[in-house]
């Protein structure tokens, strides 16, 4: 493939896009403003994107060996009841859990993801892109876009204080909440009712959820002002954050008071100093999207495309899957298939927009008053074809673990692989696929 791609940002979205492009023979450069490993909020991962990382790059064993706590699901104190309720990734675990202790849980074949410290996790993904042949440039900031006749043809970058023009056939914006391209074209739209601020800290010595799940779930608890996340990210380390509708930063006294009222197991916990010595960190938590996700010479991926409130912990999943989807669209558009570029970009945009809207609807429902636990599950069920899942509870899991969208991506990927194979054999791929569809319908 002769086309050259430029990816702006080396977080999960940019690294995955670049890794997949490079893995399939494309020339790609990534510019990342920081030097990895760098700190990032957003530590609780979903299983579907981890299985994509394994499928496309074989990263499953490496991630499993990094010492992160397994996550079998999430526990909530939310809704009409104060009784904790859990969402388990593995349907079999619903039956087995009451009879398990922690050792049996960990030894069992149950589906899980991980809660991770983002610095080493994100670093691994960017290193993978470089290993596969991407030209990864850290400490390099994209300052602005280069346009010619209305088409984006590259970016002006800053390297050691010196400006340079980097040209490309196509630019992928993965700059996270900086939204370099979206802001350049004035396309960014915030969601007014989902604007919040997160204040968080890391603790050593915290406990875990009662019973065998212990430190193997993400725990979410409402407090009068908002909600708290409790995410074990290491054997002894826990990320704890409070999300409120405040526009200003929370002070330490209020943070401590809310944690003390939450009932979370923090009695023996010690706060870990962050950068600069203070223990609190802050993140803006405003949901937003863009009026277009693709354009002439560019596309948006991950947070740079859209972001939905973190209550469902879908951001990294959205970023990794988005990277896979974006790269697949580009490989088909610029590869030997020479498929119709406009329609491939339109499909990418439609898929990402529909995932975003499903999450947004669910997040809005979540924040409504007096919602019952069953209500959350039924709301998720509305987003899923009825034949795809057995119960509203499983529909909730299918949607929020990213599996619904990942399955769609895998079908597209397999279709592309099949077509490549048929082309190599000199066989008419359309005719074979038509015949296979007809045979399936008859059968
Ligand atoms: C409070 C809060 C809690 C969250 N909790 C979770 C959670 O539990 N689970 C979850 O999955 N998600 C969570 N998220 C969301 C998650 O953090 C993001 O969705 C995820 O990091 C998106 O990945 P990305 O690659 O798109 O962007 P990022 O991870 O932000 O990566 C973008 C990269 O681009 C680089 N960059 C930016 N500008 C430039 C530039 N001009 N030039 C070059 N490089 C640039 C940045 O340095 C950065 O490395 C949370 C978010 C918030 C705000």
Compact overview of the structure:
The chain is of the alpha/beta class and 443 residues long. It has helices spanning 12-23, 47-57, 60-64, 91-96, 102-107, 118-131, 180-184, 252-260, 315-334, 341-367, 373-381, 392-400, 403-424, 429-442, and strands spanning 4-8, 27-32, 70-71, 73-77, 85-88, 113-114, 135-138, 140-148, 151-159, 162-167, 170-173, 188-204, 218-223, 226-232, 237-244, 270-272, 281-290, 294-295, 298-300.
Describe this structure in words.
By secondary structure, the chain is of the alpha/beta class. It has two domains: about 5-60 and about 115-185 and about 290-370 and about 400-415, FAD/NAD(P)-binding domain, CATH 3.50.50.60; about 75-110 and about 190-285, D-Amino Acid Oxidase, Chain A, domain 2, CATH 3.30.9.100. It is about 40% helix and about 25% strand. It is built from 14 helices and 19 strands. Strands 4, 5, 12, 13, 14, 15, 16 and 17 form an eight-stranded mixed β-sheet that branches. Strands 7-2-1-11-19-18 form a six-stranded mixed β-sheet. A three-stranded antiparallel β-sheet has the order 8-9-10. α1 (about 10-25) packs parallel to α6 (about 120-130), α1 (about 10-25) packs parallel to α9 and α2 runs parallel beside α9. The longest helix has 27 residues, at about 340-365. The chain is globular and about 65 Å long. The model has no long low-confidence stretch (mean pLDDT about 90). Flavin-adenine dinucleotide binds next to α1, β2, β8, β17 and α9.
